[in-house]
């Protein structure tokens, strides 16, 4: 398949006899697709001559992923085992398409950390970001890619790395992250120890030294880096997000910065404060699927049951996005509402007015799936009316 094949929309198609997942309802019907966009929506289960029979399976807008670390897994499939970036990006892209994801904001950490001869987190965002954008521009990727810069305020090089990006770089989201130990995601220091010792192989004394280093680093640069991140998001024209808000006071600071989305609030109190401030709450689908947070924070299901969950992210398991949406559908008793957390809601939050819903004139970015009990199975994925998986 050539780059032209992947970027040129196909002509008229008629996808019939589907359970169409619309905003607010699911109904039996058909989509007419012309030049990569939805040209008409019909009702009923008829399958006219020349139509493609969806066999009564679900047909929904393509999933929109706002925060995934999946590319990092392809770039470093084992600790200290680096993989060529081009093949890694292609594999990541194909995996997302196979999971029904048609738009992704690839999360890239900006802000590196080194101590003497030891590099805890190396700089990589500009190089990988350029490679993603180049492949997207050449039309070799199956789905639509944008960048999500995860700005680590507890780092040494954040401002310099942010300065390497500009409005031309398709940066759609900038999130303010602070992984200083003892607060936010890692309020429980033992959870942080499990994560860092497991990832870097530190001894306990090395871990304690690392924590002291991070706390001192954040005391020196944290506030300066936070201000720089807010300014960078404005410069890029990107949506600003917070990360791991734990208290109402932290949410108030986020609101003051103009944050529009809160990624993974760690408590019910923080999620409620986000709701009160009009900040959309994003929770990880793996948290929902696994039945709780791996860091010991609030369960996504608890926020769903309290109507404090707006958007799902696959985080580190792409297949979790659709599965999580179906689980929300079960919790709420409403398939349309559950699916909106991975389609309409993320589209609205990031200003993508051309996708996320099945409406005439919108992009024909679609996913067809069926349920095996309560487990969804992706059957086909389309981007601009062309099947990509």
From TrEMBL:
The entry's keywords: Hydrolase
What InterPro entries does the record point to? Amidohydro_3 (IPR013108), Metal-dep_hydrolase_composite (IPR011059), Metal_Hydrolase (IPR032466), Metallo-dep_Hydrolase (IPR051781), PhnM (IPR012696)
| GO molecular function terms listed in the Swiss-Prot or TrEMBL record | hydrolase activity, acting on carbon-nitrogen (but not peptide) bonds
Choose any GO biological process term that the UniProt entry carries and state it: organic phosphonate catabolic process
Provide an example Pfam family for this protein. Answer: Amidohydro_3
SUPFAM superfamilies for this protein: Composite domain of metallo-dependent hydrolases, Metallo-dependent hydrolases
EC nos: 3.6.1.63
This protein's record includes keyword Hydrolase = yes
Q: Which Gene3D superfamilies match?
A: Metal-dependent hydrolases
Q: Which residues form the Amidohydrolase domain?
A: 230-388
- State the protein's name: Alpha-D-ribose 1-methylphosphonate 5-triphosphate diphosphatase
Which species expresses this protein natively?
A: Aliishimia ponticola
